[in-house]
Amino acid sequence: MLKKIIQKPFISTILLALLIFLMDKIFLIPSIKKFVLYYKKVEIFFYESRFELFEYLKTFRDKEYALILGSSRSGMFSYKEFQQEMDKETSIFNFSAPLAGTSYYYYWLEKIYSSLQKKPQWILMELDAINLGSPSIYISLPYSYEPQFMLRYMDFSRDVPQNISQEKLKKYIDLIFSKNGLFKGFSADEVDTYFMKYFFIINRYNIHPNKIFENFKKIDYFDETKNTIIKIPLYEFAHRIKLKNLENFKHTLGGIPVEFYTQIPEKDLSIDAQRNFLRLLPSPELSSTQLIFLKKILDLTHQQNITLIIYKPPMTVYANQILKTYRLYDLEDLTEQFKKYHNIIYIDTTSISCKKFSDSVHLSPECYKELTKFISTYAKKKVPNLSKSF
Amino acid sequence: MRFITFGYLIFFVLVFLLYWQIKKKRHKLLLIALASSLFYSSWSIPFFFHFALLVILNYLFSLGIRSNTNHKKIYFIIIVLIDIFNLIFFKYFYLLFQFLYDFTKIELFQKQVLNNFLFEHFYQESIVLPLAISFYTFQLLAYIIDCYNEKIQRRDSLLEFYVFILFFPQLVAGPIMRHSDFFFQLDSELRLTHEKVIKGYYLIFIGLIKKVFIADNLINTIQPVFLDPLEYNGLTNFLSAVGYAIRVYADFSGYTDIARGSAYLLGFHIPENFDGPFFSTTISEFWRRWHVTLSSWLRDYIYIPLGGNKISKFRTSLNLIITFTLGGLWHGANYTYIVWGFFYGVLLVLEKPFVRPFEEMIQKHSFLRFIGILYTFLFFSIGFCFFNAPNLENSYYMLKQIFLGGSGNSFHKDHFIQIIGFMFIVFVFNYIQSVKNKLVINLKRDYWILFLLGLFVVWLLGNYAPQTQSFIYFQF
User: Fold this and answer.
1) Closest chain B residue by Cα to residue A170
2) Mutate which of B9, B22, B264 to test chain A, going by most A C-beta atoms within 10 A?
3) Which of A82, A357, B125, B278 sits a CA distance of 20 to 30 A from B244?
4) Nearest 5 degrees, angle CA B199-CA B200-CA B205?
5) What is the pLDDT of residue B474?
């Protein structure tokens, strides 16, 4: 009887599709996922760990909190240094993630605010052209956001192109910032990519046989529990590092540990800048989605009277030069819009004296103390009663 | 809606599930009409109404042509003019302006001036080219001309005609169907058989491999050379032209496979556009096996009405050149496409006295066959120096670099291997296309093969789909 049903063309069509679809889901099983996720893909860990950081933040319901929203360039901020400079009583959670942009910031801001029903004391937000480019959306799509969020902020049809060239930027910024609620957020293409990655696990994690083989290569590892060096496969090494860092997050409140940043020799910084921009911002275009979400952040913080400190991060002269060639270094048309919002403090931090860099776009860890002081001093000057301790 | 998207997957699954629950054929067609309307509207709602209106108008005029013998010609001329004007207005507007600018040098006719005006006043960056306009115009014209020539006896309903033109699997980039390709299927029951399921799945999977694995991976290798040919040496320019030939085959044949596969799963058969063209031994044979539905359209509705080969040799040659130049113009509103079409027209004229007399001999000897295949493939590839170049200047530089052995950068070893590797795979696909009818269905074996092929495709999409490009022929 069953055989007869299966043999019907309609049923066999569905069964074949279903079997292929289910086979893909094998990679969701944690013990298998551990083997197949490429050990070098740390961004998956940082994006996914933000959900655990969020759970941890919820335990701070009764306390004052502030948020740092940025890319890996803001991951190195120490909450303790900010506490020292600004407010010892406020817990400063760092939700920065590699190559994150404004859509990602808004997602966490909305999620945190609606869940805690309590506004943050202040928000520090990293912003330059890289955070507003298309690549910064696509990197966050597989590992962040819920389907409801994507559907809620999906624009079925919008009259703004997905990528806006530098020449037309002013006109489109004026349009996006002049119309309240006209633009919902993600383009249909972005939502499509999200769901493709949401439903197809191989698509989400780019599982490749070569990378699985590489995961099985053994390396020396110092086992603290046994106080000895042991040989472990790379996937196991990555797993242990992740567990250790998840534990660390409770002490760093989300800050990304220094060891995750690579140190590029100074002589290679120029080439590194060119290589990085191919990935971070390959053409002089900004994403309309990112601009729409930026406006949403500004509107939400403005309505709730939350102080929003927007800082332009320092980069090497080589990276700045590329942005200048793109004519996207100053973003004057955008910063002009900030003047409409009384809650915004805009800080250009490119003039700090410490000029050491890990690579072409990341400041060296030793400069973060100065950067923190620079931001805090400027913010306090602008808004003396930013928080209770000011 | 593009084929390689999650949106299309969900859309197709829903249509498939609903479609096979419906018993009556008329209701099935209604569902396809609705789904096809949604499919087109997902690109643009206003242009869907424009398209639907055109379809209805063509149907009404076709009734007039078939019923009223006194005014038949007037109806015919009016609707043909409407269809052609619609195509010219949207597709060749800029080219007309370009002609005017080139002759008069009046600033107003510059594309940028017009675009700036549109952007400043309407936030429109340019005049929008309606999706699939070239394909649907040719399909509409074929139907109208066949009605006029009384080749269509069947009384088609508006719903059937609407589905014929808007059928979503083939709507965007063909195949360009004729009345005889489609309507006979509506006279019998639409059924799903194992053969259709196997063919449908197989074509969809193979189409995805061609598109995602081959076509999309070649773009970053070859496109920089087309944009700046003087930066690269002669061999690299030549390999880029070959690479584009591989890409355009993988892209367009991949699309056609997915279109045909989707149609099979809905119980329909739509014609094949590629008959293993890379195994052609002459250019004329090539055009009988490449984009078959367009080539036969050009033959039946332009070349033969011009007189075909039943007139003087000179006129026949002229007709060939006119037909192929118009074929080039059909592809796009740019001088490069016109020259591309003209190039093949001239090649075909030259082939007649020098190659065609030896065609039979070429087919008999394997070495000559090999030389013929090589000759055809090389000339086909060279043509893309016009087709894919942004302007004629770049086409000239590319040809100069190739034929005068210009110096410059060369491909990295990996890129060289990639092009050669893909060329081999593409020839295998061409071989499969040429022997397709000899394969015998074996249910158990075929479902197992499809299962494994399906897993491979999921992996392929997972690793290569994020860079998926729009199909080349979508712009036409």
Assistant:
1) B120
2) B9
3) B125
4) 100
5) 54
Lowest mean pLDDT, pick from B181-190, B321-330, B395-404, B459-468: B459-468
| Per-residue pLDDT at A390 | 34
Is residue B309 helix, strand or coil? coil
Query: In chain A, what residues touch B45 (CB-CB under 8 Å)?
Result: 157
Quick check: B56 contacting A, CB < 8 Å? Answer: no
Residue B475: what pLDDT?
53
Average pLDDT of chain B is: 88
| Residue A4 CB-density burial (10 A; 0-12 exposed, 13-18 middle, 19+ buried) | exposed
Contact in structure between B284 and B302 (CB atoms under 8 Å): no
Q: What is the structure's pLDDT at B422?
A: 93
pLDDT in tens, B75-101: 999 999 999 999 988 888 888 888 888
* Residue B410 confidence (pLDDT): 86
More confident residue, B425 or B107: B425
What local confidence, expressed as pLDDT, does residue B40 receive? Answer: 92
The residues facing B340 across adjacent strands are none
- Ordered by start, the domain boundaries in chain B are 6-91+131-189, 195-282+355-475
**Residues facing residue A164 across a β-bridge:** A286
B324 half-sphere exposure, CB direction, 13 A CA radius: 21
Facing A20 at nearest CB: one of B265, B451, B463: B451
CA atoms of B440 and A117, how far apart (whole Å)? 66
Residue of B nearest to A175 (CA): B123
pTM: 0.85
The amino acid at residue B152 is: I
The whole-number pLDDT of residue A387 equals: 52
Provide the 3-class DSSP secondary structure of residue B339.
helix
Is B263 in the A-facing interface, judged by CB distances under 8 Å? no
A20 and B119 within 8 Å at the Cβ level: the answer is no
Confidence of residue B137 (pLDDT cuts 50, 70, 90): very high
Evaluated on CA atoms A14, A17, A20, A23, the torsion sign reads: negative
Among partner residues B6, B45, B454, which is closest to A196 by beta-carbon distance? B6
Q: For A138, name the nearest residue in chain B, comparing CA atoms only.
A: B466
Whether residue B197 lies within 8 A of chain A, CB to CB, comes out as: yes
Q: With beta carbons less than 8 A apart as the criterion, state whether B229 and B401 touch.
A: yes
Whether B193 contacts chain A with CB within 8 A: yes
Q: Would you state the structure tokens that stand for residue A324, as one six-digit string?
A: 């200048």
pLDDT of amino acid A388: 46
The DSSP H or E segment spanning B392 is helix B392-403
Chain A positions in Cβ-Cβ contact with residue B193 (cut-off 8 Å)? 9
A20 and B20 within 8 Å at the Cβ level: the answer is no
In sequence order, which residues have a C-beta less than 8 Å from that of residue A188 and are 6 or more positions away?
A: A154, A155, A156, A157, B7, B42
User: Which residues, in sequence order, are bridge partners of residue A125?
Assistant: A69, A310
Q: In 3-state terms, what secondary structure has residue A229?
A: strand
Intervals of chain A under pLDDT 70: 1-3, 5-6, 181, 383-390
Chain A: nearest CA to B41, how far in angstroms?
10
Q: Which residues of B touch A199 (CB under 8 A)?
A: 6
pLDDT score at B476 = 52
Cβ atoms of residues B315 and B307 within 8 Å: yes
Q: Does B20 touch chain A (CB under 8 A)?
A: yes
For chain A, list the domains and their CATH numbers.
Answer: 42-210+256-382 (3.40.50.1110)
In this structure, what DSSP letter does residue B332 have? Answer: -
Mean pLDDT of B350-364: 82
CB–CB contact A193 B466 (8 Å): yes
- Candidates A3, A13, A174, A176: best to mutate against B (most CBs of B within 10 A) is A13
